[in-house]
Fold these 2 entries.
Entry 1:
Amino acid sequence: MQILLLGSGGREHALAWKIAQSPLLEKLFIAPGNAGTSGCGENVPISVNDFPGIKRFVLEQGIDMLVVGPEEPLVKGIHDFFLADPMLRKIPVIGPLARAAQLEGSKDFAKQFMTRHQIPTAAYKTFDVSNIEEGLGFIRSLKPPYVLKADGLAAGKGVVICLTEEEAQREFISMLRDARFGQASASVVVEEFLSGIECSSFVITDGNSYLVLPEAKDYKRIGEGDSGPNTGGMGSVSPVPFADQAFLKKVEDRIIRPTVEGLKKEGLDYTGFIFFGLMNVKGDPFVIEYNCRLGDPETESVIPRIKNDVVVLLNAVAERKLADHTIQIDARVCTTVMLVSKGYPDAYEKGKLITGESKVKGSLVFHAGTVIKQGELVSNGGRVIAVTSLGKSMPEALALTYENAGKIEFEGRYFRRDIGFDL
Ligand code: AMP
Ligand code: GLY
């Protein structure tokens, strides 16, 4: 079969690498992809949000399945677009319809959904410009720190944690009145701060049944010891030692199953991946956020641990036969370190020559922000390359990852040297 994968990050390179291993695959296309994905299939220069362009390509090429990597096209309704078009409606899309993608597209939608299904999450209230005064009062009623979330998609930047009441009130007003995150902060969720350690769970679902994928932990801050501003993610590990059998059972019983059943009860047809951002509060899991896709760089540590043919699983989702399958997981530890551009997550330069990839031995290299220009591999984003290794233990996997990460060079290259430090 021929598959079109949408996206251009490390997550998509990891997915492309896995899809390309399937004997069921005839040809993989990646739109728009990066220099790394071109080793797994053919890149096509179509943006993930160019629905008419995607339609044209799918019909011209005779694509049999669309796999959606990032959230934006899902929230914008790529799956709905396929269903509404008589020429596209038979082609399965891996990724939810827009209404279900609201689990990620609207924090308020997600909170209301969790409330309806008694899924553990922080207490909250949602406000807009019409009830700013009430919001300020709600902030006064909470204890610090304060968590403010822009309701809509804000490229991972819409969550602000404030240490003082004064700062929280200022931030709250700026989000609502000065549209600090544009339309995304037209509504703001104010919620209780949960204290604990984070990890993420992932499932693949056909809307009826689901398979739990390996869990992972990502490292969001730019600086070592989890300091400095948030990034898209600087590294990841899977499995997560504190997520033991007992904890994972709670996650499945209290969060995963009620979520999949809740979606079904509400008629929110869901085919694709669900990402549960979790906080472990003294052994009990709470949902911090839902995403309607896999995480990046979690995928780089999760996918190499999945032993199944992923195309078989994707077909099972399309045919609503996931219940016939079980997941086979590699017991080894997988670790990922992200090499980023100087200046990231603020302004950074692109176009830096990348060398040393051929010296890497025993690790996987997943490209995130790379492109071939005039025959040379150059950086093309803030997060540039992920180096991933499997090992019998976390120290073993990390040692290999770091040995190889050091071999890949570009001007201003930076990576955290303490991934896994807290585990
Ligand atoms: P999100 O974009 O929803 O993943 O939020 C970004 C980060 O903010 C999360 O990874 C958490 O570290 C933090 N965060 C979000 N909500 C809370 C909360 N209620 N309590 C504590 N930390 C939170
Ligand atoms: N690494 C977090 C995310 O993909 O949202």
Entry 2:
Amino acid sequence: MNAKSELDLNNIPKHVAIIMDGNGRWAKERKLPRVMGHKVGTESVKIIVKAAKELGISVLTLYAFSTENWKRPSMEVQALMTLLKTYLKSELSDMLQNNISLRCIGQMEKLPGDVQEILVQVINETANLSGMSSGLILNLALSYGGREEITMAAKAVAEQCIRGEISTGDISEELFSSQLYTAGLPDPDLVIRTGGESRLSNFLLWQASYAEIYITETKWPDFRKGNLIEAIKDFQERERRYGKTSEQVKEN
Ligand code: IPE
Ligand code: IPE
Ligand code: MG
């Protein structure tokens, strides 16, 4: 089975982002309600957070709820919010103990009040851990949509222009990035999608411009440390060219 020893520890992706998909289909296969898929999926979250830390990943972004997911039946949305709240409550002490710092990207203000409350509490209590080496930033994408994020950043930059703080000539990729939810975080090196679909579903549209993409048929409730190692192994076999020729890459 896939073990850490099979990895090149000098080439671990700094930022791994995961589209945690396939919960509903996992449940359907077992003739269980969709919500059961989400529930078992939170076990995968716990296992993968721990594994990411052990493997030396610095930032783990998990796509937990998209701006489009609000269109789901309200029962399912409610169940997801309850699971999120339970997860945050149960993991706070573990995060503190293991130097895991929580961050959130997305429209936090759209989440139910009680979820926001615990989210802010965990973010604040784990905030000062992030500076330490060997720590992990766990970045939850909640009510997140890449287009919404880019639109929000465009508005913020436009307002700076209107106020006369900057001129249009000052607008650079760096300035624009600093207005995104991910400000200060490195771009993802590896984007994993479970559940087999080959699409981004509005995830990190700006940030994933040069990410390596790995798609696995494994559904999120079945995703384990070995699957993460497999994805990183695949990543390590890729040549990241950033537009250059293979020869140029090898010269450096
Ligand atoms: C991902 O699993 C979880 C969320 C989007 C919240 P799905 O619920 O989308 O599972 P499938 O794609 O229907 O199997
Ligand atoms: C993407 O999964 C969003 C999350 C995993 C949170 P979806 O199941 O919502 O994506 P689509 O609808 O199949 O594109
Ligand atoms: Mg899905």
